[in-house]
Amino acid sequence: EVQLVESGGGLVQPGGSLRLSCVVAGFTFSSYSMNWVRRAPGKGLEWVASIGRYSTWTSYADPVKGRFIISRDDAKNTMFLQLNSLQPDDTATYYCSRDATGVTRGQGTQVTVSS
């Protein structure tokens, strides 16, 4: 059974930082490029970032480029998303996903950016 479990969300003030984690099981993590997607209140799923196998490449959506950093630890079947310089528009549920469209994703972790 494929499992993806996110953690690390919370309430943070504008300009703050958070580090999200995603632990996976049920498939060979190192064989897949991986993704983060998010859903803001009242909106659809939005791709945020991707990382290739063995961290050979990364890619970011324009709204988060230069502020978010995606990484992975294949030995621990874990992926991370460092969120810096957070803004209210970053408020969303963040999901790790095995695909860029979010079809195979976890239950999500809530990030709220508010003063």
Number of strands: 10
Major sheet characteristics: 6 strands, mixed
Count up the helices: 0
Span between N and C termini?
40 Å
Unreliable segments (pLDDT under 50, ≥5 consecutive)?
none
Beta content comes to over 45%
The helix fraction, in percent, is: under 10%
The ordered string of helix (H) and strand (E) elements is EEEEEEEEEE
Structural class: mainly beta
Spatial order of strands in the largest sheet:
2-10-9-4-5-6
The gross shape turns out to be: globular
Estimate the mean pLDDT confidence.
96
Radius of gyration over alpha carbons?
13 Å
What order do the helices and strands come in, and which of them pair?
Elements: E1 3-7, E2 10-12, E3 18-25, E4 34-39, E5 45-51, E6 58-60, E7 68-73, E8 78-83, E9 92-97, E10 109-113
Parallel strand pairs: 2-10
Antiparallel strand pairs: 1-3, 3-8, 4-5, 4-9, 5-6, 7-8, 9-10
